[in-house]
Amino acid sequence: MRTDNNRIFLIALAVLVGGFLLFMILPGSGCSKKKDAQTTANKDKMSPAMRTYFERIENPPTPDKAMEILRIGNQRYVQMKSNYALGNNIERRSFLKDGQWPYAIILTSCDSRIIPEYLFDAGLGDLVVIRVAGPVLGTSVFSAIENVLLEGRCHLLVIMGHEDNIAIKQAIKAVEHPGSSESFWIDSVGHKIIPSVLNAKKNRSENSRMEEAVSRLNIEAVMAELKAGSKLIQRHVDSNKLKLIGAYAKIHSGKVGQLKK
């Protein structure tokens, strides 16, 4: 009799567990289908520009594709045919409340004439821009880059210098006129650039192009330091998840060129 009771108990328990599992699985499946249908419906209501942006989110650009997007955007800027308004509107802003999907990180200086969003004709959510004198590296710069990489959606990091850079000029001045200190903080940035100044002079760069030579050497030094100073960046580069490139911007034309390796 006791055996029969145990058997009945086990059968009842199995029925209860099975029913509970069905209850958990079926509603979840229904919700998933409902969510997919809702996403499709929302996509159909999007403007053509927003649908293009949404498709880029679904298929994140490879490093080479991201470089091509930057190149084409810069071409529009140079030719004064920018589509800037397409990426800066209520529709894009509303969509981005749920997250960001940038296709490139741009590390450049804090010059008011060098605005990456304009130079590459980019919109909201397209670029993560880090601006710092030099540019040179520090704790906050490493942290900002690594936070983006941890999200796993961005696969291109651009280190961009430009002509008429005040930090580059100060570093050259510090080498050519020792003791002409401006301030502790200016000198702190300049000291990080001085090795590039010395290398430029060692390579006998023409004085007329000294600033550009130093800027380009500084970009190369920053790229090397990024990989040496961050295991996360190095790991992404080694696994081809991230591409590092150097670039140099011309203020008068707006043209951005990639540094030759």
Short description:
The protein has 261 residues and is of the alpha/beta class. The protein has 2 domains: 1-45; 48-258, Beta-carbonic Anhydrase, Chain A (3-Layer(aba) Sandwich), CATH 3.40.1050. The chain has helices spanning 2-45, 48-58, 63-78, 90-95, 116-119, 139-151, 166-176, 184-202, 210-229, 231-238; strands at residues 104-108, 127-131, 156-162, 243-249, 256-258.
Describe the structure.
This protein folds into two domains: 45 residues; 211 residues, 3-Layer(aba) Sandwich (Beta-carbonic Anhydrase, Chain A). The protein is 58% helix and 10% strand. It has ten helices and five strands; from the N terminus they run H-H-H-H-E-H-E-H-E-H-H-H-H-E-E. The chain has a five-stranded mixed sheet, sandwiched between helices. It is globular and about 95 Å long. The relative contact order is 0.11.
Distance between the termini: 85 Å
CATH structural fold name of the largest domain: Beta-carbonic Anhydrase, Chain A
Given the helix and strand composition, which structural class is it?
alpha/beta
Work out the helicity level: 55-70%
What secondary-structure arrangement, pairings included, does this model have?
Blueprint (H helix, E strand, L loop, with lengths): L1 H44 L2 H11 L4 H16 L11 H6 L8 E5 L7 H4 L7 E5 L7 H13 L4 E7 L3 H11 L7 H19 L7 H20 L1 H8 L4 E7 L6 E3 L3
What keywords describe this structure?
single chain, 261 residues, alpha/beta, Beta-carbonic Anhydrase, Chain A, five-stranded mixed beta sheet, 5 strands
